[in-house]
Amino acid sequence: MAESTLKQVLKQKIEAFRPRIQKLNKEFGEVVIDKVNIGQAIGGARDVRCLVTDISYLDPQEGIRFRGKTIPETFEALKAHVVPGGEMPTVESFFYFLLTGEIPTKEQAQEVFAEFKKREALPQYVIDVLRAMPRDSHPMAMFSAGIVTMQRESVFAKRYGEGNLKKTDMWDPMYEDAMTLVARLPVLAAYIYRMKYKGDTHIASDASLDLGGNFAKMIGQVKPYDDVARMYFILHSDHESGNVSAHTSHLVASALSDAYYSYSAGINGLAGPLHGLANQEVLGWIQQTMKKLNNQVPSKEQLKQFLWDTLNSGQVIPGYGHAVLRKTDPRYTAQNEFAKKHLPNDPLFQLVNMIYEVAPGVLTEHGKTKNPWPNVDAHSGVIQWYYGVREWDFYTVLFGVGRALGVLANLVWDRGLGYAIERPKSVTTEMLEKWAHEGGRKI
Ligand code: CMX
Predict the structure, then answer these.
(1) Terminal CA-CA length for the chain
(2) What does the alpha-carbon distance between residue 222 and residue 229 come to, in Å, rounded to a whole number?
(3) Is residue 320 lining ligand 1, measured as CB closer than 6 Å?
(4) What CATH code would you report for 278-386?
(5) Does 275 qualify as catalytic in the annotation?
(6) Residue 377 catalytic?
(7) Chain CA centroid to CA 154, Å
């Protein structure tokens, strides 16, 4: 395959960046940047600084920045790539930006579009595997299986197997796999959607449409859903490296597993209710609440009671809280602004806004969570529901199509910068008790 401009730009950037990592590692490897306490060892390594990425950064107060830009700044910077008649930039231009940190020219974005088109066709053997699965399998199980089934095509695995792949060249076949996966995931997701929920009728990919527009068409949606798809994929793309889906993928890839093995593993993590599945849980919770009131929007008092009922039954309020964030998630705000414009009178949207008024107070009074504010998942299902994508259990697949952009961009850079195999150290409970008694581990 002829080298694309994106690949050349990446090669230059990776090679220019690599000495920074080598210098830090060789000359400053002993410099201490964090310490770990017993609470962190037991409590999921919260706040332990031991991952490196330059693709996004999550500030607890401000939320996510992609390549140094907030969400509004990102959309503003990519405005030349907004699809005519729409509001959102193409996923193609955004992916170029995530990978390189540069805003692409029209030609560069067009080249990514052409590359995706070349790679997007879903192989028949993937379809065969999907069709062999029981139809009531969760779509995330199908999505993960579809991804890992394509592993036989991994360029990375093939080149590695040839036995002469230099460490500094490993990013190149990782890039090849990443491009193919990003191109195919919307097609895979759309196939699962139509097979499971739309009577197994399928809509062919449209060669003229960008990734978001094409996905909308393949699942049977019309404008402005194409913009919803673009917005979703971009907003869900990256949330630095410590979240379960990104970290799982990074961990698996650190063993030099290829992108198919790695991202399929990440998808399995995304399928957990404390992570990506929360978007499906939110809709379920809202619908349940409305059902109890014969589909009437509850009063604030009633809503407060429902929130307490949920907490008192030992469940979490889905869509609220976050391991890092301590304020309203700007991904929630971006969706809220879109909804204000496009579905202001939708009763579910109004209910989401009412939950926003009530839930933080209830969660604060409940006194457990460190963050009573909503995360991305508190909003995403409602917009999908409004546009007629009402199969809740599919919502996390949408998250997975988007998350691939960030995870795969990171995997390319991980290989480019030669990050090591991950292997943190375990200790025993007895050791913790001893150190607790002694006031800390003697180093
Ligand atoms: N409702 C009720 N209790 C909550 C809560 C919520 N929304 N969020 C946190 N808590 C509880 C925790 O369960 C924990 O309780 P225990 O001490 O009994 O174990 C306590 O508050 C402290 O938790 P925390 O430090 O504030 O939060 P964590 O970092 O441990 O967990 C998260 C973060 C997201 C798993 C948690 O807030 C949660 O379960 N939220 C609801 C599920 C959700 O929306 N997940 C999606 C997150 C975004 C994403 O990844 O997609």
Answers:
(1) 53
(2) 11
(3) yes
(4) 1.10.230.10
(5) yes
(6) yes
(7) 22
The pLDDT tens digits of the residues spanning 240-267 come to 999 999 999 999 999 999 999 999 999 9
Q: Quick check: CB of 338 below 6 Å from ligand 1? A: no
Nearby residues of 284 by Cβ (< 8 Å), 6 or more positions away:
318, 392
Q: How far is the CA of 236 from the centre of ligand 1 (A)?
A: 19
Q: Look up residue 92 and give its two tokens.
A: 């193609």
Q: What is the pLDDT of residues 385-399, one digit of tens each?
A: 999 999 999 999 999
Tokens of 223: 């404008």
Question: Residue 292 has what pLDDT?
Answer: 85
Nearest CA among 164, 176, 142 for reference residue 259? 176
Q: Exposed, middle or buried: residue 83 (CB in 10 Å: 0-12, 13-18, 19+)?
A: middle
Long-range contacts of 35-42 (CB under 8 A, 24+ apart): 38/432, 38/435, 38/436, 41/427, 41/432, 42/432
Select from 40, 237, 238, 274 the residue to mutate for testing ligand 1; criterion: most ligand atoms less than 8 Å from CB. 274
CB of 50 shorter than 6 A to ligand 1? no
Nearest CA residue ID for atom 9, ligand 1: 369
CA-nearest of 239, 104, 95 to 178 is: 95
